[in-house]
Amino acid sequence: MDAACTAAGIPDAETLRSIGPDEAYARLLRNGTKPHFIGYYVLVMGLQGRPWNDCKGDEKKALRIRFDAIKADSFDSGLSALERALDDIGVRAKA
Fold first, then answer.
1. In which domain, by residue range, is 6 found?
2. For the whole model, what pTM was predicted?
3. From the CA atom positions of the chain, what is the Rg in Å?
4. 8 Å CB contact between 16 and 4
5. Residue 21's Cα: distance from chain center in Å?
6. Contact 29, 7 (CB under 8 A)
């Protein structure tokens, strides 16, 4: 994660905290990190100082909506609907 953040222009924890989880995750996706919901909410929980598995119920549903929006803007924007669907189930070959 440290190397991925550095490569995405997030050189340290201070920068990560200052830009927040949504912008940080968007930068990671734009830099080639494959989207994964658990990775996103672990980042959110970590920045809140909470255990990764503390995310449940309505909070988790709300984070899923945020994750989907970040993914659509930062990872899926150039894909067709079919390509997005294939990515969602993990069957499309990487470019």
1. 2-89
2. 0.79
3. 14
4. no
5. 8
6. no
